[in-house]
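Pilot study result, target chain (143 residues):
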Amino acid sequence: MYQLKSICATLIATTLILGVTEYHRSSLAGTCASQCGPRPIQFTPGQRIRIQVVNRTYREVKLQKPFILDPVSLKHGDEMLLEHGDGTLDNASLLFWHENGYAIKATVSKPNFATLRVELRPERRTRGDRSIYILDNGRIQIL
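Predicted structure:
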C-alpha cells in the first residue's frame, strides 16, 4: 500500500512540475528585439530628404514623382538621386513600373540621416509594389 501511495505521489508531483514548467515556458514574453521586425523607417516631419533609387531588376523601370517629375527611364544597374526639396511637410509619392507589367519588389533603407534608399528588384511570387509613399508625419509606406 505504501508503495502504491509513493508511486501515485511521484506521478502527481511529476505531472505538476512538468505542467507548470510547460505552462511557464509558453507564458514567457520575448523581448521586442527577438519578436518584432525591423523598426519602420521614419524621417523628422519637415526634413528635406534625398531619394536614391537603384534599379536591381533586369529590365528598364519607369519612375515618376507625380506633379513634379514626368516619367523617366532607369536602366538595369542605374541609380537616380531625387531631391524631396519640400521636406516631409506634404505627402509625396514615387511611382515605379515596368512597361510590360512585370512585378517589382521595393526595399527601402535609411543609409544616413537625410537619405531614403529605394532598391527595386524583380518579384516573382506576388503582384509586387507600385509606389513609395512619404507621409507628412515622416513615415514611409510601400504600396
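One observation from the pilot: Residues 20-27 have pLDDT under 50 and may be disordered. A full batch analysis is planned for the follow-on phase.
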